């Protein structure tokens, strides 16, 4: 009998809303999502996600010590995956077929490469099924 483990990929925007309160509803919802997901090996982020997250916090003039604290909280709470050459190759195909932005194509490709079933993101169509196996869920709907 085959058992599949549900794996969830968290997009950058969910992290940003959880650490930068520019919208109280999204801040509270993102914090709730992350609290539920903390310390679960089936929750993935990528090095791209952490890089984008750091860049946004720097642009929002968060102190570097605070950003570093968030960084360690995140990497100690979730599984972090690297972006491989194969992920880039698949991302080109995703971009062409789905007309996503390049950065969203990389996120989707990384989630697919790591056998995720769910992608938490507000950037793509809520409830969209990609490649018949990755469901986009907008936690802010």
Structure description:
- The structure is a single chain.
- The chain has helices spanning 12-19, 24-37, 47-59, 64-75, 85-98, 102-113; strands at 8-10, 43-46, 79-81, 118-120, 129-130, 134-137.
- The protein is an alpha/beta fold and 141 residues long.
- The protein has one domain: Rossmann fold (3-Layer(aba) Sandwich), CATH 3.40.50.
- It has a 6-stranded mixed beta sheet.
- A hairpin with a 3-residue loop joins β5 and β6 (134-137).
- It is globular, with a radius of gyration of 15 Å.
- The mean pLDDT is 91.
Can you give me a brief rundown of this structure?
With 141 residues, the chain is α/β, with parallel strands linked by helices. It has helices at residues 12-19, 24-37, 47-59, 64-75, 85-98, 102-113; strands spanning 8-10, 43-46, 79-81, 118-120, 129-130, 134-137.
How much of the polypeptide forms β-strand, as a percent range? 5-15%
| Whole-number mean pLDDT | 91
Number of strands: 6
CATH class: Alpha Beta
Quaternary form:
single chain
Q: In order across it, which strands form the biggest sheet?
A: 3-2-1-4-6-5
CATH architecture: 3-Layer(aba) Sandwich
N-end to C-end Cα span:
35 Å
Annotate the secondary structure layout:
Layout: E1 8-10, H1 12-19, H2 24-37, E2 43-46, H3 47-59, H4 64-75, E3 79-81, H5 85-98, H6 102-113, E4 118-120, E5 129-130, E6 134-137
Helix pairs in contact: 1-2, 1-3, 5-6
């Amino acid at each position: 009998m085959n058992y599949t483990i549900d794996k969830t990929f968290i997009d950058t925007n969910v992290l940003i809303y959880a650490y930068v309160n520019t919208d109280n509803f999204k801040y509270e919802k993102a914090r709730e999502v992350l609290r539920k997901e903390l310390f679960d090996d089936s929750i993935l982020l990528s090095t791209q996600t952490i890089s984008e997250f750091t860049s946004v916090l720097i642009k929002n003039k968060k102190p570097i010590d605070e950003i570093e604290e968030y960084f360690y909280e995140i990497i100690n709470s979730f599984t972090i995956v690297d972006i491989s050459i194969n992920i880039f190759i698949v991302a080109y195909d995703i971009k062409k077929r789905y007309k996503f932005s390049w950065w969203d194509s990389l996120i989707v490709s990384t989630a697919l490469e790591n056998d995720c079933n769910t992608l938490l993101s507000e950037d793509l169509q809520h409830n969209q099924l990609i490649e018949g196996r990755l469901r986009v869920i907008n936690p802010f709907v």
